[in-house]
Amino acid sequence: MEELDLLKKDWQKNAAFEQVSEGEIYKMLHMKSSSIVKWIFIISILEILLWTMISVFFNTDDYLKNTKYEELNVYFEGLTVLNYAVILVFIYLFYKNYVSISTTVSTKQLMKDILKSRKTVQCYVWYNLGMVVLSLIIGFLIAFTSNPEVMVLRDKIASDGKIMVITIGILILTIAVFLSLFWLFYKLLYGILLKRLYRNYNELKKIDL
Prior knowledge:
Blueprint: H1 2-13, H2 18-57, H3 60-65, H4 73-103, H5 107-146, H6 151-159, H7 161-208
Helix pairs in contact: 1-2, 2-4, 2-5, 2-7, 4-5, 5-7, 6-7
């Protein structure tokens, strides 16, 4: 933002340069915002490719065959397809936001587009975090009710209420740890870009006053 700060100082020093400086500042903010949203779009595509590669190595079919829930494989495949469909919708929205920001010529519209882009990314992150929690809960329930290796634990829970409390506590802790790790992942992945985008929005507010 050093170039922007220099332009603002020159703008304040020289009233005759006011219109030129305002236009230059807007142009710079426009370019920066467009670049940020473009990177959000690119990163989202790389992310879905990453999760696809991971899912190839982690095959749920073999796991379900060892349980009494093998027939659930169809439902898991349906859930996977639905999840990818939702993610593709988000990617389309990221692209649409990029096009919108790149082509706008109005300061007010650019501000609206920036807020819209930030909201889209935030919804995307919350959706993915929700899917993480749902996947962990479903995986635990299937393992607990059908995995032969967990039968000893089930017997202990049935005979001792304290073990049930401990088991639930471990489940909650596991979900919290995974949720924190994924939140940190998305914070690093998108948080920095969103902060820069919001900084541009605040600078535009000063111009629009």
